[in-house]
Fold these 3 entries.
Entry 1:
Amino acid sequence: MAPIKTLRSGDRGPAVAFLQLALYRAQTDPGQPDGIFGHNTALAVTKFQTQSDLVPDGIAGPRTQEALMPFYTGFRRHTVARGDTFYRLARRYGTTTSAIAAANPRLRSDRLQIGQRLVIPLGFDVVSGEIPITSDIAAVYIAGLAARYPFLRTGTIGESVMGKPLQSLTIGNGAAEVFFNGAHHANEWITALLLLKFCEQYAAAAAFGGRIGDQDAAALMERTTLSVVPMVNPDGVDLVTGALTDGTAYERAVAIAAEFPQIPFPEGWKANIVGIDPNLSYPAEWERAREIKFAQGYTRPAPRDFVGSEPLEAGESRSVYDYTRAHDFRLTLSYHTQGEVIFWQFLDYRPPRAETIGLALAEVSGYTLAETPYESSFAGYKDWFIAQYNRPGYTVEAGLGENPLPLRDFGPIYAENVGLMTSALALA
């Protein structure tokens, strides 16, 4: 997890929005997180610094950011002192004994030893639907979830063009392996947020004996193993959400975009940072995808729809391909936006149970089950998975509108898809 950078008055962007979220969680309300470090944010920083015995200069520097870290990650570490119990710690930190027990499964409240280190989950969700996501924010969320739910396994499956890790989360130990992925396309970054929120709610339900969708979460974990790569294209996501605004990679993206003035920049960017579309890179009739996209004018690196010079040239796609080959996934969901539609087939492949499962996913979400339009039918992850394994693979186009979808749509989109994801696990 990368350190959080110094922020001060006049700064803008998703890092400022994340700071504002942390200040709100710390009860020094900076107002609505708008990504602009203005007067109210400076006042909130100063108030937090005063409460934390820091120099109240209104600048979120290294010491202030370190003190704020629990409000970014959703947990703090506590060294056991005489008289500590889960109950007393829950009262002190505004959390619950069950949350502390879940984060420290090897410890008992009545047998704590002085000097032991505990993870104390704080009284709010880790993943927020109120601010845009970036690769760094995703890393913080994942670290927070792993600390609060130790049975949730994290890792990396490769790296982006710029060397950013492609992070993964795994929940469950069952025989049926299932794979969800999101944000192949940069301006569809809200899908990464969707998948991380599902992981959080699924883990919480399993930890506390609850349900996710219509399923008993703990029982579902025993039957299935869910692997999630929420952000396949972190460089592109950072470009669209404003975390990447300078440097060689940014300047190269600007130059690529200048050759396609009809595509708004950066909000129209779907590709990886060197202008290859990661979801047109898989070896599933890739040559046909090239013919179609070249005919549309995408014959060179572009903000969208350039297939590259050969299959799997996009390193991000190669990583997902290798990860899939190393597993035995019975079903996959690839999350995109938008259209409220589920695509389920590839050419004349009709995997066993694929249409039946697809109809069930459509019913629970309210989305339409459809065949993929011809011009979008080739070289996608779903296409390759179906052709390679003859198993159910779906592209879910979540939400409606123009990409990137606004954050105000996140709540309704999640409500539509939590049952879809849960059903995909249960039916795998």
Note: The mean pLDDT is 97.
Entry 2:
Amino acid sequence: MRAIFVILFFINSVFAETISEPFKSVKASANVLNTTFIDDKLYIATDGGTVEIYDIKDEKFDEIIKFEDVKSYVSDHERPKILSVDQLNGKILMLSEADFGARILYLKTKDGLKPYKMKNQAVKKALFLNDNIVVLGSISNEIYFMRLSDGEIFESFKISTAMLSDMEFSKDRSTLAIGCESGKVYFYDVAGKTMRKILDIHTDNIYDISYKNGTLITGGTDRIVGIFSDDTLKKIDTGFLVYGVGLSSDGKIGAYMSDEMSDVSLVDMRSLKNIAILKTGQSTINSIIFINENEVITSAYEKNLLFWRIK
């Protein structure tokens, strides 16, 4: 494997299309923490205790799931932060804050909402493996496999002593990509229970990863964007902390927050040619979603989500 370090990447930006106006914006009821896009539905997790489901095709909110207030050490009525959302076969998995900083997992089906109290209060993200098994990732970098039928954790392992930053499944949910505070990304084969690959990408904490069609993009504290495709690791020096990244579904186009103005750069994942720059004007970007290769959604810790058209 070879590594390419791009120092003067900004030269490509001169020739990239600059897009200053989104073609649409959608307003959530509270500040957005993260978004998930599955089957033409945008699942918006907020700090106001809501998961808001927006239908991209119908251009309307289908549903707003609102959770009860939780208790903290200073108040009996705090809106819980929704930490992650996933969806599989019509079921919705939501990880939320609970009383006094604990964690609670909710499963929403046609039969209603079922809660699962988490024994580990450091669980950071929850993903479906299949209809009955979910994967939980804790800040301490422990990965747990839990059955939804009885709420029991039947398997677990620890990645490293570094904290967990983010984790994403491949589309077929056979490989789990795990980004860590150490700057490494681990690729775990779920069926084989083996670590297929470890990439040493960053020198410090990873903020965000996206993993699509065997292609990976990462962003971190060291102001580097990591790109892994065709068994080749490439790096882009952005000159600023990279808080948010995203990938098109085919893995051919990547996106990342590229400067202190929250501009988002779109790049060809093979050639590293800069395709476009989105002048978002938002606060720190926390999510970049590709609707398709020509349309992108950006969100930050604010209520408005912006929709961008590249061509």
Note: The first strand starts at residue 3 and ends at 6.
Entry 3:
Amino acid sequence: MGIKKGEESSGVVREVKFPNKGIVAAEDREFIVKNVLPGQKIRFRVTKARASRGEGRLLEVLEKAQNEIDPSCPHFALCGGCAYQNLSYPDQLALKEGQVKAILDEVCSQFEFEGIKPSPASEKYRNKMEFSFGDEYKDGPLALGMHKRGSFYDIVTVDQCRIVDGDFRLILKEVLQFAKEQGHSYYHKLRHTGYWRHLLVRKATKTGELLIALVTTSQEQVGMEPLVERVLELPLKGTVKGILHILNDSLADVVKSDKTTILYGQDFFYEELLGMKFKISPFSFFQTNSLGAEVLYETARSYVGDTKDKVIFDLYSGTGTIAQMLAPVAKKVVGVEIVEEAVKAAKENAKLNGLNNCEFWAGDVLKVIDEIEEKPDMIVLDPPRDGIHPKALKKIIDFGVEKMVYISCKPTSLARDLVELQNSGYEVERVCCVDMFPGTVHVETVVRLQRKHT
């Protein structure tokens, strides 16, 4: 009969498929076990005992992989934020490069694969963190940080996190201390009771400007003035531009605002990218690795190529970074983005950078592209993680442009969309990965597609 659900087994990890699926051979079949490295010998508990390929949960690493190193972050084993801090940075890059190439080889026959470009910084690279309030174990003391690996509820206080700089860590400690002194509970996701929800910290890499937002429910009343004073007295390297109190009574576990109060300063800050200035508000999308974003966008720009006298559509345009990067060398750029706040910021940013040939539309790409009068000569796609809605993809294909550049943050979604694009007359010419998220499973991929002429 072989091994059953709930039983333990062991084996060597043969490979790790994107995002973090370890393939382990044991008891005459294969199992998928997450949070492992190629070459590790592991012990795991079977959670699904299918005949073809089962699933298991890691219990312990019996033998390390040959290239495994000691992680620099003390939270690594507990925190669910990072997956590969026990690999050197070059080994992380090689793993991600291989994962993307394997996924694309399954759906594309011929393309020029240009490998992976590293992030300029492999630690302290994030310009934004959303920390959650909770407890480290049931009914334990108040915690503020990241979700524990594999847990929906438990929170690890990541006050020594390596993917952010010291300012994030100082702010986290001070806010947690203040919250503990007030004595209120964190927001319980199942009971829908409690006060403390999230701490959002954004810091511009180039300008050093900081925006801090404390997110709570309206179930208690806490005077925030002492916290403002304490944060402003911290020995931060950056400059605090704004401290906000956001009320969020939504049942969903997301950071959103029912009401925002500015406790200090303003509700935005500025970042610089490729010589341009961008105004960023608490919820507007902006690449979380500023230095890595420059590498990503320069790669995308080189894939776009000649833009003279061309109308470019930038679909899923966020705060308009790509649109503004292409605008100086194009006839016109039209950005489409569903988040209205981001579109407002994109318009302001274009004005800030003296660009008058950018136009931004708020709405779902699927609906908005029917309303735009211009027809594009070229399309840049930078969709969310799940890729492009099939109906929207069909409309994009129907424009019949000669060239597209697709920027993807999830290679499996990219592969699905590339199948449709290739079936509709496009061929994949060039592919390059850019690592924007060192230590984690995530990777960006840039693809240039050319319309085939028969």
Note: The longest strand covers residues 53-63.
